[in-house]
User: What shape does this take?
Amino acid sequence: MPVFVGAGTSSFMKGSDGVGVSTMTTTQRNALSGVKKGQFIFNETINLAQYYDGTTWKSIDSPPSITVFTLDGGSDVTSAKINRLAGGNATIVVKGSNFDTTAGIVVFEPESSGSNVTAQSLVRNSTNQFTVTVQRSDFLEANDPYAIKLTNGSGLAATLSGALDVNVPPVFASAADAVLATVFNGGAALSGSTANASATDADGDTITYSIVSGSLPTGLSLGSSNGYITGSVSGVTPQTFTFTVRAATSISNTDRQFRLIVTSSPAGGSTTTNGGFTYHTFTSSGTFTVYSGFTPNIEIFMMGAGGGGGSWVPAGGGAGGCVSMDNPNSIPTTAQVYTMTVGAGGVGMINPGSYNWPSTQVAAITGGDTHMREAGGTYVLTAIGGGRGGSYEGNGNPAVGNGQNGGCGGGRGRNDRSDGTGVQTSATTSPLGIPVSANSRTHGVGGNGGSSSSNEGYGQEGGGGLNNSERGGGNGKQGLEFSWISFLNKGTNSSNTANSGGWFGGGGEQDWWLGISPEGFGSFAMLVNFVVSLVISKFTPAPSEDIQKLIENIRNPDEE
Assistant: This one.
């Protein structure tokens, strides 16, 4: 039979089936009094024997052991790299033996310094396996490597050293969606690090580069070992190329989208170059295209067309308005298509040669405005067309005889009718808020049209002209562009003296008959008349003696 040995709270049984000690729960143990150092119990709560060391109760247990682990479903390993930037939780399965399925815990302990990383969740699968989820961002590269530490309820623990090394994927030098370079079609080649899609790796791992979506312009390539884009572009339409570069190591990779712009100089109009400048001249309506990646400030000069001349004791049309913007007040362009509208010369009124005045179009037409518009329809600049000249009011409409207001010059009124005035003859402000010079006379350009009474056949300063004092007005002309080769000497100024040269509106030589200016046409006509008279005289008989005496008497009436 069992024999009980001891007294008080310290006792054990000795029998044929072994030696036993007191059995109790943790609550009962804590209620004991007079506990002596070295006293033993079996704790039913934790299913372990315990002894009192004079200060606390300590469990008697077999120590755990960690052999391998898996990271995110991978193979069994003793070390691995964890990407703290990947986001979310990592799943780590710890494998070994003697795991406490009741009170065992797992932490990730820095081997140098820093705080432990604790589990987000812990599943005690068996005495041989625990499954842990842990937040990746809790691991810090400065604290690696991390050991996996499993501690049983007894306090006994197992450690797997050097288990986790924090790995940061490659980091690109340029921000996402950055424009790495602007390449001129047919221009200089890209070289070196001008277009840089490179990355760095904190762990010093070797990086390789590749394009995983999109493409580069023809002629360019990505360096697989350095991430530099090199080469030259030719025959590529101006556009933006979007592509994604992958920087990869043997452990991790990073993808980033970039852009590269292929551009050209602005296009439109008739193009010439001189002194490092490119000139775009528009003598008819068109478009001026500024491409992405090339948005220069431009200087601009534009003119409205001349107004048409009147008819029947008529008056000349006025000159078109002139506007200019040059340094330091140049226009800041943006990548878009600008609409350039060149004003048409005003149509002159020509009487059919009788007093049967036409029922329609009894007045000449004002010269057309010249515009520069942004893509959305906003005016950047406007040069106003010249005013029309006055005509005979055979239809009973006095307004027809008045000259009309215009750009730099208004149309001349016929006889005693009112003259138009220039409305674009002083500095103004563009829709962009930039000061604009609008005074044509600062460029040697005239103003109002001339009148028949002063024999100014085509009117002053390039407006619509006169064919003669009876038949009526010529058409106004488009303004000629400023010539950088030589200043043009056309038209007259407000004092009816020759220009020193420069820009002018209306009256362009491209509209002169046989290239003869209005000023020189009288001489030409005199010559033609002389030739015609000689020809006719060869085919007609001489006048009779009576007719010759009559003509001579008209010339010298006192000599009869």
In short: The longest strand covers residues 157-167. The CA atoms of residues 542 and 548 lie 9 Å apart.
